[in-house]
Amino acid sequence: MYLVTGATGNVGSELVRALHADGEPVRAIVHSNPADDGFPTGVDVRSGDLTDPSTLRDAWEGVRGVFLLPGYDQAPTFLRDARAAGVERLVLLSGGSAGSGDMSNAISAYMIASETAVRASGLSWTILRPSAFMTNALRWRDKLDAGDVLRLPFAGVRTAAIDPFDLAAVARAALLDDRHAERTYTPTGPESLLPADQVRILGEVLGRPLSVEAQPDEEARKEMLTTTPPQYVDAFFDSTSRAPSTSPRSLRQSSRSPADGLARSGTGPRRTGRSSSADPFGPPPGEPARDVTPRRPRARPRPGAERAAQ
């Protein structure tokens, strides 16, 4: 049994589907009513709260591996409960800024604290440090409704954003293959793109002449403060974390998913027919590659509107 926290998020929902398609038993932890989340038949869906370890104690029973979100002060407690219940493997979704060691940055600090708790848990662990998700483009919906020129912050900052589908494939491999124990990976997308590059590609997919206008920092800060606590806004501006690119699919290949979300309200059909020829990590040093191709199900409706990673 594999337990997935953040199971309705961009990465967690993809991981639940990938494990289920493999025939692996999956337990999905959600905040909402378990009956309302549209997971595939056979997935064990349970309510749980990572800020309250008592809500998770029964969920650890029979679980071998866990996919864990970062940023929870109670992590040492619920990880101790997990180990006592027989959990063996743990994959943590962290972030690229954790490698900076900068505890003065609020985002880096909670990533670092989560990694510290995981390493001290006594469980076999793998840490994933992506830098940005391609589905972050969904935040531009309101700006797209307003016209073809998007005023965006950090217009001069490149990111190698990764498709959550690909990141879930990495998490899946880490859960199923013990050779990735005690390793930290930085999975990224294949292209380092400016916001203008991302918007241009989405414009091609949407059939619109989209362009970017650089948003001044003070205007961007004021806008971000309407939805984000000040310490995290400061952290966004302070962060200079970068990650190298690897070779998963490009934004142009991936953009059908965020573009579909931007082009319409409601939901649409799932992608089908994708496959990966080998372990998305590549093999550990000195070992041969092993085929870990996900077996994809027939097309299914998305289980709800696209949600941000929790």
Side by side, the strands of the main sheet go 3-2-1-4-5-6-8
Number of domains: 1
Per DSSP E runs of 2 or more residues, the count of β-strands stands at 9
- Give a quick account of the main beta sheet: strands, pairing sense, barrel closure: 7 strands, parallel
What general outline do the C-alpha atoms trace?
Answer: globular
pLDDT averaged over residues: 81
C-alpha termini separation: 22 Å
Helix content: 25-40%
Low-confidence stretches: 240-247, 264-279, 283-310
CATH topology: Rossmann fold
Q: Approximately how much beta-strand content do the residues carry?
A: 5-15%
Per DSSP, the total helix count is 10
Question: What is the ordering of alpha helices and beta strands?
Answer: EHEEEHEHEHEHEHEHHHH
Level-1 CATH class name = Alpha Beta
The assigned CATH architecture is 3-Layer(aba) Sandwich
List strands and helices in order, with pairings.
Layout: E1 2-4, H1 10-21, E2 26-30, E3 44-47, E4 65-68, H2 75-84, E5 89-93, H3 106-119, E6 124-128, H4 141-146, E7 149-152, H5 164-176, E8 183-185, H6 195-206, E9 211-214, H7 217-224, H8 230-238, H9 251-254, H10 256-263
Helix pairs in contact: 1-5
Describe the structure.
- The chain is built from ten helices and nine strands.
- Helix 1 (10-21) crosses helix 5 (164-176).
- Strands 3-2-1-4-5-6-8 form a seven-stranded parallel β-sheet, sandwiched between helices.
- It has one domain: NAD(P)-binding Rossmann-like Domain (Rossmann fold).
- It is globular.
- With 310 residues, the protein is of the alpha/beta class.
- It starts with a strand and ends in a 47-residue tail after the last helix.
- It has helices at 10-21, 75-84, 106-119, 141-146, 164-176, 195-206, 217-224, 230-238, 251-254, 256-263; strands spanning 2-4, 26-30, 44-47, 65-68, 89-93, 124-128, 149-152, 183-185, 211-214.
